Amino acid sequence: MWLLQPVMCSRVLRVRGQAEDSSLQDRGQWASKAEFLLAVAAQIIGLGNVWRFPYLCYKNGGGVFFVPYMLFLVVCGVPLFLLETALGQFTSLGGVGAWMKICPLFAGLGFASQMMILHSCVYYIVILAWAFFYLCSSFQTQLPWSHCNNTWNTDSCRGFDRHNMSDLSENATSPVIEFWEREVLDLSASVDRLDSVNWRLALCLLLVWTVCYFCVWKGVKSIGKVVYVTATFPYLMLLVLLVRGVSLPGAVDGIVYYLKPNHTRLMDPQVWMDAGTQIFFSYGICLGSLTALGSYNKFNNDCYKDCFRLCLLNSSTSVIAGFAIFSVLGFMAQEKGVDIADVVQSGPGLAFIAYPRAVSMMPLPQLWAVCIFLMILMLGLDTQFVSLEALIMSVSDLYPTLIRRCHGREILLLLVCLVCFLIGLLMVTPGGLYVFQIYDNFSCSGASLLLLSVCQSVAIGWIYSADRFSNNIKAMIGYQPLCIFRLCWPSSENISVCVQGTFGFSLMFWSPLTLANGVTAPVWATVMGWTLTLSSVSLLPLWAIYSLMNTPGTLQQTNSSIREVAVIMETAYSHEASR
């Protein structure tokens, strides 16, 4: 137990939201509660809801996916969401600084989460480049994915205006799939063949990065205003797509497939793995972004009620998006005369196949296509620039005298955007989709997120004490959170059981990653994936070893200081709360 105690102390007293040195720029705070709620909603409600969640339902047997999803939501999602938000609000620091103050030995949690954010910034924005490509293509007199008269179409292409689709050859393809694979991606047949950069996609990627930069460069002041648009507009478009989808013939079959569980899939550990990682991914847990956003709150903000509101909004959006997607899949299955499970190829292109197919059926399809892909762009953009803000602010908290002077923040942001853009060019090649899937599977989802969640529970539940953290929340909001949170935070309880069980099953039944078009990832791709995973999670033990080697005194001596440090922190923040 002595090995788990914090081994360094940090200064506790500070003025929230203000520069500690008069020559430094202010850290900033939210101008209103609405800005905080919209910013967090922008971070957690994104492509994970309208692309990843329906895709995982489709992949894992439809409605049976709700069983492990709801279990992870109650036991892990909501408690960890509150933990990270309250941690940032209590300390007024980003992901790294907050853990250094609360539990310095586990400050590697902060560094690991920032490395994951960096990885996600590289590949997540590529989806936005695809969406921007579709958006530009939507301004043509006839949508290019609605017919087979394009130069990239093959003889197997069959347009949407053909009838008796069930009589077609099994090799027949639709124009929407050929547009996605042959025109947008120029997809290669092998992961070993990357070839040259697709400069049209590269230009789209550059434009999206430029927009992200100017949304973030002024920090919380600019983000707080942008999210009023980016966090609300997608809901209007999602509602339009849902209304149109359920009115299509065959939509009921798709919705039934979405809701009717295939119980045999519950025995597959991958279903549980996907459910757990979906909770962590869509809620932004273990990525440090919630801590950073919470750090801009006033000390007395009721983050407890905010947690329930935002979690309910997030999961509700995922479910509604699933209805919108599966209603369209049901129609497409009826049109082709096949089972819903075979109607579209699994993969990240689900939103770029089902959504274009839906808008092509609407009156004024160009108008709806523009609206739909603007929705996808805004959903992804706000998640992207909030993640960037979390990363930049965490670095600024570590080196305030360097970053928060003159234009230090803007220069750092420019360097991060430039490096991520250059790495992202690998994903706009003919083999780029395979690289994207490797990043998506290994870098910030799966085993790494599960491991960080266990470590967070250990740090708060065992070392800092769940009761003490609950009292910290009471000091901010005036009342204690439900006792179930104090039961879920300690690692020996629910979180650890679910997470470790899922992680163990995933190792027992591990198999090579299957990429687009059924391509099995070669050995070098798997090695690359695990390298991405280790680049973040390895920072946990490395930081702990570094701390132990550079802290004077014995572990027994540092043990007696933990209670003194905790009392000082609680006293300092209690005085601040009373002001």
TrEMBL record:
CDD domains: SLC6sbd-TauT-like. It is a multi-pass membrane protein. Na(+) 2 binds at residue 49. Disulfide bonds join 148-157. Na(+) 1 binds at residues 282, 314, 379, 382. Keywords: Disulfide bond, Membrane, Metal-binding, Sodium, Symport, Transmembrane, Transmembrane helix, Transport. GO terms for molecular function: gamma-aminobutyric acid:sodium:chloride symporter activity; metal ion binding. InterPro entries: Na/ntran_symport, SNS_sf. GO terms for cellular component: cell projection; plasma membrane. Pfam families: SNF. The chain crosses the membrane at residues 30-51, 63-83, 89-109, 121-140, 197-216, 236-259, 279-299, 311-333, 367-391, 411-435, 447-466, 487-511, 523-546. PROSITE patterns: NA_NEUROTRAN_SYMP_1, NA_NEUROTRAN_SYMP_2, NA_NEUROTRAN_SYMP_3. It is found in: Membrane. Belongs to the sodium:neurotransmitter symporter (SNF) (TC 2.A.22) family. This is Transporter. It comes from Sinocyclocheilus anshuiensis.
